[in-house]
Amino acid sequence: MVETERFVYEIDDTPFINKQQVASGSESESDFDYENMGNYEEPNEFEDSGEEQMDVDDANIKSNGGAFKAPTKDEVQSLRETGELFKSNFFKLQVNSLLEEIQQPASQVETLTQALHALRNLIMETKPIGKSTDGKLSTSDARKYLKKNNLSLPVSKELPEDVNWAVGYTVPDIVQVAGSWPLKTNVKRRSSRVKSWEVTLAILLPSHFIQEKDHQNDRWLFKQAFYMTVLADILKKSKLDIQVDITQANGSELEPVISITNKKGSKFIPSNTTINLVSALASPTPFKPLSKISPSRIGSKLSNAFMKPSLHTPHLTYLYNIAETVPAFRDAVKLLKVWANQRSLDWLLNGFNAEFVVALLVDGDQDGKGRVGKGLSSYQLFKTVMDLLRKTDFTSVFMKSITTGGFSKEDHFNSTPLLFIDPTHTYNLMDGLLPEDARVIGFEAQLTLNALDDDNDRFEDTFMKDLRNPTARFDLIGKGKLPSKLVKKIAKGTNVRQNIAATLARALGERSKVINVKLDDDMISIGLILDSEVAGKIVDHGPPAEDEEGCEVFKAFWGEISELRRFKDGKINESVVWQQSNGSKELVPIQIVKWILRRHFNIDQLSFIAEEFDGLLEVEAVDGVETFNDFGAPLQVYEDFQSMLRDMTTLPLEIMNVTPASAYLRHTSPYPQPTRQMNKFGVTPTSARYIPGADLVVQFESSGKWPDDLEAIQITKVAFLEALAAELMKSGQYMAQIVFDSPLPSDIADAVALEVINEQGFAWKLRIQHDRELTLIDRQLNDKVNTTNSQKEILKEARHRFLERFVNKPRHHQAIMALTHRFKAYAKTVRLVSRWINAHLLSPHISQEFIELVVASVFLDTGSYSVPCTPSLGFLRSVLLLSEWKYKQEPLLVPLYTASQIQEDHLDRKIVFPLKEKTEAEKTFEVLRRTDEDIKKTAMFVATEHDVSGGHYTHDRPSKVIASRLQSLAKATASALLDDGEVDIMQLFKSPTEIYDFVINLKSWVNTRLYQSLADDNFGDVDTSNDALVNYDPATMFVEYMERMYGDVVVFFHDACGGHVIGAMFNPAYTSPRKWKVGLHYPTKSVDSKDDVVIDKKFIIKEITTLGKDMIESVTSK
Predict the structure, then answer these.
(1) Which of 768, 785, 680 is nearest to 716 (CA)?
(2) What is the dihedral of CA 207, 209, 213, 218, to 10 degrees?
(3) Is the separation of the CB atoms in 207 and 380 below 8 Å?
(4) Do the two domains 98-280 and 625-802 of this chain adopt the same fold?
(5) pLDDT at 290
(6) Which residues form the Nrap protein domain (predicted)?
(7) With a cut of 50, which residues of the chain have pLDDT below it?
């Protein structure tokens, strides 16, 4: 290695780099072409390139009486360049603001600078120990010195005696600031383990202490350890008000670190800062010959430890040259560190790793590849770094060499799985990392690129959002305890983490995209990001039977669960078959991880939070019910039923279309339609008799025989449904009856349906769609002469009902069905979120469609997350969305129909909300909030491409009060799930009743859906009646009746999924005195003034108790 120019960063007037001391780096042209990435220059320095410029005539422009001038040519050019260099002008402002925010405050820098001066002066004034003037001690004298001063070395070995080399302490040759602080690329850390700011002081050990052969026989280990131990003792005994500790960097005894922080109450250095003192050696390394400490000879970790002390100056010099020739280098590094900080990608935060990644782009690798223009903006550099991290596996990356020495490529190969070799070619920046770690970084980079490539503002997702908690990032998180034998192996230096990661990668195969293994003392944490297409594969195919050697290897890996099986294609292979837990294929990877870690590492105390969700929605069968848990059978029976309807020839008109519009037929209802034995319905407990009906829309063939009168059309619908019921009942396989809406709407509005139940207990509710109906409604609404205002209100209600039943809900159903096919975890995620919302008694206030849209947003607009592949992760992300959504200031735009129209061969296409509809929705939301500042309507604005007004599912519900309640519950639930400790999932689905003004406790016989309850309730008595009624739920019907009766005076809360309590809260708006007047729609009582009244709470509770009669067990009030 050629000797690097002596370059010392001593602390004189400033701890930063002196530009005069650095030789400028060489300029060379980029040979790496990145599309749309030009050269960046500072504002106001753009030269006229001769391109056509905007012709601006100030005299001809008038705006606000001349208050504004037209932009100058330079300003126009600057704006145009800003858009190209920073995605948008607003994005640039955000980046600039961020870069300012992450700087250490000037007051702290001043304090820190003074502290560094004080430490340097103290250290440079220290005296040699012992009797000799050079501070050297024989190892025998050194042992006595340690014992006398009650000191111990930070190494596991004893300092030897009777050797021909010495240790000691005297004043260091140089004390210099190292690391990113003098380079001005340091950023504030977000970690519970380290301080926000770290500054490194390199202590250059006296050259006369070091000999060429000190790499042998632990000589350097002891010399360094002794020197740093004595220095730490000197600092502890000094008058400086500091806390001094000795730690180890990278867990290596060859890398002792003296950490200096404040004592309690001290102001010597900023309280959020740590000063780390590390040992340094002159460059090039004094250890000779270099081949003796090559990675191929002693391993990458040990080789790095020997080389690192000599690289502080060469690394800083190299990076400083890069920073001076690439204007945006420092800011790009800071952006990269902030990005890594938010994702706990610690490798990019350590040392100069982030700096070297950016330098790799601008300076290129050993082969001259990967270079980009030095004039790129910080954002362009950052984005290019993301691309680099995304597609580089770092198995063999060598930076362009700045010396003629260093180790050869062959010296580095096979020393460690990953190679990212520094410009001196003596140091592996990725030592200690696994291929799986690089994949985690690359995967996160890919997610960031995906986010930045769409039209939305992704600044917050990229740089501001806290993504450090792995629970929200990984599809599966497993935690457990390591056996003591494994802990001992780790202590001896065995790379257990690498062995575990490699074994898991082999076992999971293509099921996993990312494997993240972390070991902390005796604990292990495993994070998996899955490939949803293959994660649930239940068979692992091994080699064919004739491959005896391959079969033996396969069986040795999998153990006794491997078996020889014949498959349908006639092949005979060794294979492993996994079990589906409750039919849930998404948990197959958990079985694999548990089995393989138990077999190969004796790790048997591993738990996954996803397992806690498994079975949460499962219900055991009872008399008369074959299963409560099968979604497949109802859907298949429906297909047969609608096919039979379309084949009917005995009706006056043929049925052309049967369209579903029900969560029961799109797999998103919390519970499916039960599969029953209707001939045993009489022995089914009352609490399991709920027969849910799936809404169907029936369209007959076109005919001119339909009446041209709205009222007559409704009568004709009744006739058609009666004829259909008669035909169905002829077969003896169906029960059918005509039902009308309650309460009845006007005579011109759709209000009739046919309820049908088959022999298996599957029920459907059929309504007839006649498009002429909408035409007649619109015609009368537009008739300003013959239609009165009161008639218009009736017509508007009829129109709303028609669109909701025959347009919006069927269209919504088809779009949601597309999502359930595209995302395997979507449907069950909706079920979990829906059950959670119901469990917190919010059933009366939040529609199923609203829940489906919120969850759809989680899957379609992932931001910096991956698409959830497990329901447990989908559930967590959904409650996170609800907890973080600033619904008062922001609409939720869900590109539901854009996603549903993407063909299967284009599923990787970016899904974005169409610009025209997005603009319209945002404008509608803005007007809504401006005209309704109290948010009396549409508290949570959810829009789709076909509902830019947000009126379909969020106009009336949830209200502002309910929205606030929902967000509070979401925050509490998310906090519990993200907590490091154990969480009882069932507790997340329990809602306290103490918050309500009064609580109604229902009798069990009232609850026909008690089988859906998450509480430990029994199924109640058996009703001897054989009557089977569709959607018969007395508890919910009672709540709906009270809502109609009391309006907004009392807010009722209920769990429609088997809840046996009803919570109620009085609207505070009615509790303050107001003047009495005729027509008040609620009970009142007089207050002090004769004319003032308030709501009569006691009377309302008494009235409800009377209305409930035998349904109510008790009523408790505050």
Answers:
(1) 768
(2) -130
(3) no
(4) yes
(5) 92
(6) 199-321, 328-465, 484-602, 613-821, 823-990, 994-1115
(7) 1-68, 76-77, 79, 81
